[in-house]
């Protein structure tokens, strides 16, 4: 206890006034910009000071400092465009330093960390790298030609390393020589025997890990809504282990998401055969039933809609034929939204009246008006009564009343027929002299005092078109 007290007291010294103050432990920190190489015996003088300066010898700015830090793999925020970063290349090579089983296990663990953080894309990439490692290892075992090709590539890489070591510094050469010595060291017989005996276990572990990686990557695809890729990975896992419940569940979920009910139901049923009490699969089964009922409701509604539309078209066609109204369609019909020829007020009642979309055209003014429902019992004059007064473009008041205008429709031969203002639309259309093109009735409206000149121009234009 006394030693502790003395040690504590020894940390206080007295100043000129007799008051005690804390003692300074160790030397004071160096000022900013000082050469710190003295603190590091293995560095040349000025090395640290130089590292904090740019090419001009001036202290680096904050941006330059961050740029310099970004060259180191531990601080990188993005991969460099070139392949000259030796530290990064070394770290990337470390990922494949072990056995295929070790490398794949490492990729799986990295993928799991990303998956926990909901970084689905990154997790998918790590799982994919693990799968690639194991698939390659399996192919090497099964395909002697492929194995020979891989070994030849490794031999070339080792040869390049030896050449680089010979041209590099002594340290690199020493490391290369050490690797060569280690490669040439004979393997003890007992160790060699142990590896031969463990090959079967290695294959077993690699197969189990490959199944897990496929299943995990399928989970990433499911979270990313890559449903087809999810089903493919689940299928790969199920080829290894047909009883993999996670693969069956995720496959069922993916298939349900794209409304493939039969396939999803098959996956769910297979899973429930293995584990009837699996909560996730039971919920999937309930969701399948609900989705199937929803699809059937939509199918019934669509079938009813199509049947109604078919009957509507048949009744409309019969009504037009019964009235002797000619119709024709072109390859470029006008856009009229939901306006069309129909029976009103009930489209499915044969006793209803026909209604036509109608365009009133004012060719001398390049203006128009659209009537969405022009019933067969109505006349052109009835509509002009409320349309013509107070037209903003009728400055000369040539159109301000039905009595000042004449109406025409194009005939079947390309000429013009005059439309009486008081005649019903049915009377005009059933005369056999005109037709309804693309379900739209077109009526030309011109002032009486200019009708003769306009008709002359129409005939001249049609005559020139026939030449």
UniProtKB/TrEMBL annotation:
<dbReference type="GO" id="GO:0005634">
    <property type="term" value="C:nucleus"/>
</dbReference>
<dbReference type="InterPro" id="IPR011990">
    <property type="entry name" value="TPR-like_helical_dom_sf"/>
</dbReference>
<feature type="region of interest" description="Disordered">
    <location>
        <begin position="149"/>
        <end position="173"/>
    </location>
</feature>
<keyword id="KW-0802">TPR repeat</keyword>
<dbReference type="GO" id="GO:0005829">
    <property type="term" value="C:cytosol"/>
</dbReference>
<comment type="similarity">
    <text>Belongs to the TTC4 family.</text>
</comment>
<feature type="repeat" description="TPR">
    <location>
        <begin position="245"/>
        <end position="278"/>
    </location>
</feature>
<keyword id="KW-0175">Coiled coil</keyword>
<feature type="region of interest" description="Disordered">
    <location>
        <begin position="1"/>
        <end position="39"/>
    </location>
</feature>
<feature type="domain" description="Cns1/TTC4 wheel">
    <location>
        <begin position="346"/>
        <end position="458"/>
    </location>
</feature>
<keyword id="KW-0677">Repeat</keyword>
<dbReference type="InterPro" id="IPR019734">
    <property type="entry name" value="TPR_rpt"/>
</dbReference>
<dbReference type="GO" id="GO:0051879">
    <property type="term" value="F:Hsp90 protein binding"/>
</dbReference>
<dbReference type="Pfam" id="PF18972">
    <property type="entry name" value="Wheel"/>
</dbReference>
<feature type="coiled-coil region">
    <location>
        <begin position="278"/>
        <end position="323"/>
    </location>
</feature>
<protein>
    <recommendedName>
        <fullName>Cns1/TTC4 wheel domain-containing protein</fullName>
    </recommendedName>
</protein>
<feature type="compositionally biased region" description="Polar residues">
    <location>
        <begin position="7"/>
        <end position="18"/>
    </location>
</feature>
<dbReference type="GO" id="GO:0030544">
    <property type="term" value="F:Hsp70 protein binding"/>
</dbReference>
<dbReference type="InterPro" id="IPR044059">
    <property type="entry name" value="Csn1/TTC4_wheel"/>
</dbReference>
<dbReference type="GO" id="GO:0006457">
    <property type="term" value="P:protein folding"/>
</dbReference>
